[in-house]
Design brief:
Two copies of one chain form a homodimer. By secondary structure, the first copy, chain A, is an alpha+beta fold. Chain A contains eleven helices and 13 strands. In chain A, 35% of the residues lie in helices and 24% in strands. In chain A, the strands form three sheets. Chain A has a seven-stranded mixed beta sheet, with helices on both faces. In chain A, helix 2 runs parallel beside helix 3. The longest helix of chain A is centred in the N-terminal third of the chain and has 18 residues. Chain A is globular and about 65 Å long. At the A-B interface, helix 1, strand 2, strand 3, strand 4 and strand 5 of A face helix 1, strand 2, strand 3, strand 4 and strand 5 of B.
Chain lengths: 335, 335
């Protein structure tokens, strides 16, 4: 069935019926606003926009994957504050001749990650549009207080969760239909389509008061490190050989070098800063984080800016701006 | 300056600098998420989408007006729950060759109504897009509990604030460049461009426990009354001669009859149901509401559906569906 046959109200009714009523939802989908309970006397809110042709390509992204990813990128923002996500609103523009099944697949993707992360859909809006776009707002709690980008100090260690650059390589494989070993291909593409928001790690780092400043790596390591450094008024040294790279990344390393790990977007790993004296405490909780963590550099005085250095002490040229949606530049590192 | 020169981060910085820090904002624009205080242990959230060519036309809508209206339609949703709005996130798609001034004008429009209604901008997202669209999420409090669409009972009186159909007539004047008396023209167009969210009325009706069910008239009276009746499991009789019409509406009445008042969208008036025995109590608070209210009909058993009748007892044919974004039908009443 096409959306033009089902109609807006029919669609909303279907979404409402398939959405489980979550905890704390006094009024969910279908009224003028949702009415929700609030613990901790405070809450977090983050909003993200995903537009066809800019943030995703329907040639290689299914609606299920789009739904999953929409929630994942927002959960990642809540994780980067050390929070726990709770309620979601989705506003969606979509061509009227689209099949109803696509929209239902989208919300299946939302529910799949929602049930893993404790997120309930509580409202939103739909409209006919020439292309597909999704605007999400995710509410969260900050049971241990929120961790901003602004708390890093000179001398702090810089850590990152997981591995870097996989999602950007995955996207490149999809775009250029590159030949890569079967398993590497599957791994890298899944890192692009199903980003892993580091919810557990973010919560533990907040609870144990380990991360002094935190951000998620969405626009590329250097770009997001730049944001953190700017907010914290520090500079940074990154050790290029310390960057955590996956085996799949390594096998295509010869061609690319560390450029995707430094500048590639959509990793949705957490980047955080730690007092040096807290290293031992971090070691103790390491296993509970649910993901590997790697020390990739140090905070330095802000006048030094951001530098990437090799083990031989050689500086790699650093493009301070990564991906900018209005400037649309993707920097290429030539070392 | 063009957005392509200023860049995304430059733009966000400008918006951040011009946004006053509101009460209860622990962390505002510029981090992974905003961190906000929450009174009353509960909150409301509503989301709305406005797309160029569907919800607004830049030929006759300035960016300032678009900003104002974006907030107004969301405030209206919070008002319809009997709530008070607090925090706003805005996600915006806009062509990269747009001038920075346009975006600044948009946020000036937001601030203009925001300062009147106690709303603070706390976050959002921006992206390049082929056309302009805005997705807003507005948080609110429900200090007296939320009023849903579902509380109406048979025998209840049906009331509406303000006058109906003006915004739809205003839009028609803009679209067809119709000739109307100067003052009527100005009034009707301003009703389309600067909708008046009935915040004070909604709050008082909630506080005094007068409205048993409430909705805002955004898609047309019959459509929204249909939603309220469906949720409340009642039918309704509307008296066509009782519909509150402005003087400007009356002067063009001969041509249009009550069709715009019954089916025209974007009035953003409040439609609410009242126990008959509460009439005297409503009379007492009437002056404090800040807007005229009119009894336009009665709730009846649901099997009777929704009927519009004249004083001579004649039924007007009622199209149950008004505007549907996927079906794109605008019904015409032929009586």
């Amino acid at each position: 069935m096409r959306l033009s046959e089902l109609g807006e109200f029919g669609l909303i009714e279907r979404i409402r019926k398939t959405t489980p009523k979550g905890p704390g939802v006094r009024i969910g989908i279908g009224d003028d606003a949702a009415w929700l309970e609030c613990k901790n006397r405070s809450f977090l809110i983050t909003s993200d926009l995903l537009i066809e042709g800019i943030h995703f390509d329907l040639r290689w992204t299914s609606f299920y994957e789009l739904g999953y990813k929409t929630l994942a990128v927002n959960v990642s923002d809540i994780a980067a504050m050390g929070g726990r996500p709770t309620y979601l609103t989705i506003s969606m523009g979509i061509p009227v001749n689209s099949s109803t099944k696509k929209v239902e697949d989208f919300f299946r993707g939302i529910r799949a990650l929602g049930s893993q992360t404790g997120v309930t859909l509580v409202g939103g809006d739909t409209s006919a549009a020439r292309l597909v776009f999704v605007s999400a707002s995710l509410i969260g709690q900050a049971p241990f207080g929120a961790i901003t980008r602004a708390g890093a100090k000179e001398g702090d260690d810089i850590y990152v969760t997981g591995t870097l650059g996989d999602a950007a390589l995955g996207l490149e494989i999809l775009k250029k239909n590159q030949k890569v070993k079967k398993w590497d291909r599957a791994f890298l593409i899944s890192r692009h389509l199903f980003p892993s928001a580091r919810l557990k790690a973010g919560l533990i780092l907040a609870k144990e008061r380990l991360a002094r400043a935190m951000i998620d790596v969405s626009d590329g390591l250097l770009q997001d490190l730049g944001q953190l450094c700017k907010a914290s008024k520090v500079g940074a040294v990154v050790w290029s050989e310390a960057l955590p790279l996956s085996r799949a990344y390594h096998s295509s390393m010869s061609k690319n070098g560390p450029v995707h790990a430094l500048c590639g977007g959509e990793d949705y790993e957490l980047l955080f800063c730690l007092r040096s004296r807290d290293r031992a405490r971090l070691e103790k909780v390491k296993k509970r984080l649910g993901v590997r963590i790697t020390c990739i550099g140090k905070c330095v005085p802000s006048r030094h800016g951001i530098r990437v250095i090799t083990s031989k002490g050689k500086s790699l040229p650093v493009p301070l701006m990564g991906y900018d949606h209005f400037k649309s530049k993707f920097p290429v590192l030539t070392s």
